[in-house]
Design brief:
Elements (H helix, E strand, L loop, with lengths): L11 E3 L2 E3 L6 E6 L4 E7 L3 H20 L2 H17 L1 H12 L3 H18 L2 H4 L4 E6 L2 E9 L2 E5 L7 H12 L3 E5 L6 H12 L7 E3 L4 H9 L3 E7 L2 H13 L3 E5 L4 E5 L5 H13 L9 E7 L2 H16 L19 H17 L2 E4 L15 E4 L6 H4 L6 E7 L2 H9 L3 E2 L1 E5 L3 H10 L4 E4 L15 E2 L2 E2 L6 H7 L1 E8 L20
Parallel strand pairs: 7-8, 7-10, 8-9, 10-11, 12-13, 12-18, 13-16, 15-16, 18-19
Antiparallel strand pairs: 1-2, 3-4, 5-6, 6-22, 11-21, 14-15, 17-20
Helix pairs in contact: 1-8, 2-4, 2-7, 3-4, 4-6, 10-11
The structure holds nicotinamide-adenine-dinucleotide.
The site of nicotinamide-adenine-dinucleotide has 29 residues, from helix 8 and helix 9.
Length: 504
């Protein structure tokens, strides 16, 4: 793919039309590999949100009454269009986010899998029944959409994360408002265009660009029933507290600091490439990135794994996502690169040893940062506990698995944890004791499939029902539970008569 030269037009999509935002301010969108401005995101105001909510509200009665089989057919067409435009979407991800083609294709695929899951909405919407809870009385539950719902998404998976909610919420009969990251608005725009081409009626899907002011307008809007948020921990906490205080249902998926625990029996020739890919893939800008390597055992075993990881990381090819063979792609913004650098400086000050230093990466343009390893990190250091969200791996050395689990559980976060071993008893001990919602055994990025929940715990998640899987369907629906009996009784042996026959 070539660098994109033309600037993209970024607008809101409200009631079936692409419209200019009322807000006059904009935020620059960069190609992170070159630093070139490729678009400007309008920062929508309260009035823009009001218009979008109004359009979604007007569409709700028609869409929620559309048979679920017809809603599912729109999703099937959406899935086909996403497949047809797969490469285009992949390249848009690389352009606006910076990740390489393989990672970008992976996220588009993972997003499509949620659409496939949501195509089963006629089954997913099924309620439950028990007949004869008392004599002649049945108990039934029905699933209903909520109304107008919103999704607020981050920059790091600009195609997949909108697709975590869009097909599920819409398939369940809600009308939907998407607020993309102001740093990566292009994939969201394309997804909405394709959904419209698939036949979603006007007002059912709306898109409002913007940043915190737009988010706050959504949170305060009395007619938005539910908000699904994905982003950093402080913002997730703010969204959860503000949204629930105004009576909304909220799920807020937040930041992470994931350990990769390596036991002395790990199959290193296979584990090391996996560890390196978890730590440095997508430049470490993943909520499932393994950002702490916990080397367990005697010093010799610890040194062995750290040295192999250092060797593999130091030979990574730093380059643009659209260049053949790039292994370490740029960070999203220069300001973020400065933040990552300041964490490496901090680690050094806290007493860690920088055994691989990416601070002086040689690229003239773009927001690149080289692979970095901080060795000798301890649980008291901020670099062990705070999310850096860059290609920086902290190494913690411990003697036993118990200590590795205790270190991991000292984290305020609980998104994911991986273990590298062939020892089933060790795996069982770890699974039973570790505080993390997504677990990987010899897998560094423990991403659940679309039919499972994306399952962070502790400060990695605020709410009750997680995104995707059956949790996602429950989040976007509510039940009516009905107890039913009929009072007329046919004479014994006689078939039940229809009301008109009975003269009713
Ligand atoms: P972010 O919190 O900066 O932004 C996320 C969204 O919140 C964006 O749409 C943004 O416009 C909005 N926002 C930002 N600041 C706000 C404020 N002060 N008030 C209201 N809204 C605000 O996150 P990001 O940098 O785009 O994404 C990276 C973060 O997301 C990382 O912390 C990562 O771990 C997390 N993340 C978590 C998951 C998960 O499933 N747990 C998945 C992906 C990313």
């Amino acid at each position: 793919m070539q660098t994109q030269r033309k600037a993209f037009d970024v607008r809101n999509f409200v009631g079936g039309e692409w419209v200019e935002a009322n807000g006059q301010q904009t935020e620059a969108v960069y190609n992170p590999a070159t630093g070139e401005v490729i678009a400007k995101t309008p920062l929508s105001t309260k009035e823009d949100v009001e218009r979008a909510v109004g359009a979604a509200e007007a569409a709700f009665s028609g869409w929620s009454a559309t048979p679920v089989t017809q809603r599912a057919r729109v999703l099937f067409r959406f899935k086909m269009l996403l497949e047809e435009h797969f490469e285009e979407l992949r390249d848009l991800v690389t352009l606006e986010n910076g990740k390489d083609a393989k990672d970008a294709a992976g996220e588009v695929r993972r997003g499509i899998e949620v659409v496939e899951f949501a195509c089963g909405m006629p089954s997913l919407m099924m309620g439950e029944t028990v007949r004869d809870v008392a004599s002649g009385i049945d108990n039934v539950s029905w699933r209903y959409p909520l109304g107008v719902v919103a999704a607020i998404v981050p920059f790091n998976f600009p195609c997949m994360i909108p697709l975590w909610t869009m097909p599920v919420a819409v398939g369940a009969g809600n009308t939907y408002l998407l607020k993309p990251s102001e740093r990566t608005p292009l994939c969201s725009k394309r997804l909405v265009e394709l959904f419209v081409e698939a036949g979603v009626p006007e007002g059912v899907v709306n898109l409002v660009n913007g940043a915190h002011e737009t988010v706050n307008a959504i949170l305060e809007h009395p007619r938005v029933k539910a908000v699904s948020f994905v982003g950093s921990q402080p913002v997730a906490e703010h969204v959860y507290k503000t949204g629930t205080a105004s009576g909304k249902r909220v799920q807020a998926l937040a930041g992470a600091k994931n350990s990769m625990i390596v036991l002395p029996d790990a199959v290193l020739e296979k584990a090391v490439p996996n560890i390196v890919s978890s730590a440095y893939g997508n430049a470490g800008e993943r909520c499932l990135a393994g950002s702490v390597l916990v080397a367990v055992g005697e010093k010799e075993a610890q040194d062995r794994v750290v040295e192999k990881v250092r060797e593999a990381a130091s030979s990574m090819k730093v380059g643009a996502g659209y260049e053949e063979g790039s292994e370490l792609t740029p960070l999203i913004r220069d300001s973020h690169r400065q933040k990552v650098r300041s964490y490496v400086d901090l680690g050094e000050k806290e007493g860690a040893e920088v055994v691989l230093d990416g601070r002086e990466v040689r690229r003239e343009e773009g927001f690149f940062f080289g692979p970095t390893i901080l060795d000798g990190v301890t649980g008291e250091m901020r670099v062990a506990r705070e999310e850096i969200f860059g290609p920086v791996l902290s190494v913690v050395r411990v003697d036993t698995l118990e200590e590795a689990v205790a270190f991991t559980n000292g984290s305020p976060f609980g998104n994911a944890c991986s273990i590298y071993t062939e020892n089933g008893a060790a795996v069982r001990y770890w699974r039973e004791h570790v505080e993390a919602g997504m677990l990987g055994v010899n897998i560094g990025v423990a991403a659940p499939m679309a039919f499972f929940p994306f399952n962070g715990v502790k400060n990695s998640f605020y709410g009750d029902l997680h995104a995707t899987g059956k949790d996602g369907v429950r989040f976007f629906t509510e039940n009516k539970v009905e107890v039913v009996r009929y009072l007329s009784e046919p004479a014994s042996g006689e078939a039940v008569r229809l009301p008109q026959e009975a003269g009713a």
